[in-house]
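Section 3.1 - Work completed
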Amino acid sequence: MTEHYSSLKHMRVSPRHYLWHREHPSPATDAMLLGRLTHTAVLQPDRILLDYIIWPGGKRDGKKWDAFLVASEEQGLTVVREQDWTRACAIRDAVRSHPGALALIQSATHIEHKLEWNGVQGQPMHGRPDIIGADFVADLKTTQSLSPGLFSSGAWRMGYFMQAVIYLEAANECFGMRERIFYWIAVESNPPHDVAVFEADPDSITRGWDEYRACVERLRECEQTGQWPGQFQERVKLSAPGWAGASEDDVDFEGVEGSAE
């Protein structure tokens, strides 16, 4: 079965999570549609008017909405909200006004090109890297903060480092083995849409490879055994949180995530 980063990343949590997401594909959401629109606006601005159309009304229901949706689909157009169009264009202008980001886009040899290749352990893979150049691969990401520390933490949590090595592998397998550098073009999702270009360091790439191999190995094992375990198969000792026992005046409960019922 051909794999894609968007499904394989769930193996980072557990085989049980992977299997559920594989069998229950996520429906398109406004956030996902905004992401696609933003990528088109930034990376292929000439296509935005060819691929999308703005819904001029308000609430998306009723006969007018249904007729507009049908007519748009017949023309091969994706319907987007006006506020999403405005945000995507603002992000486009911000990214393309950043010298470093623009240089990567302009030196690309392939943009959003669908690729198929044999990955780790011969695992069939497919993907669509944002930007491939002669000596680099780059990915466009929106973020709440351009703080390197915060972005790095979020990138690891979201599996961006594993995605990076998968895309590096794709570029090497499809266009020749090269010592390519991986970059993230990071742009604030909210105004003023500040932009930064982050370069993945070699140690982080090595850790991404380790995680990628581990996910593929676990996938192969689960496919062979037919067993898809969750995160915790053994008993887990649970300790009270570090702030337990402190006075309420010393604890910022607004910063404590989650609750038990």
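Second construct:
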Amino acid sequence: MKNTLLILYFLLFLFLFILSHNFNFAQGDYSFVPQRIKCTPLTIFEVLRGAGVPAGLLSRCLFYFTQKILTLLYTFSLFLSIGFIIYGGITMVLQQDFGEAKKYILWAAIGAVVTILAFSLVKAIEFSLTR
């Protein structure tokens, strides 16, 4: 029962995460124009076709890609924390098992706080290195 509810919550948050993004196709804009990679004047398709990649591309793009990956991890971690808080609340209401529900809520709140502190620390280091 617990595993089934956990899987259902995960799928619900995954569905909500996907819906939260802006899709151009839903708004009638059916054209796809590849965006430029922020750290180079090329598009991803030009790089895949074998266009001349500028020297030092890895060093210029490493910071950009690391930032994107960390943002994805922070977002996933916060969604997971919110899911466990909701799961703990539902467990508390439905099963009247306050001990286990408090553990879920406590550890999810600690996870959310650690995630927010890690995000803040990384942003502070980024600010101090780039300014």
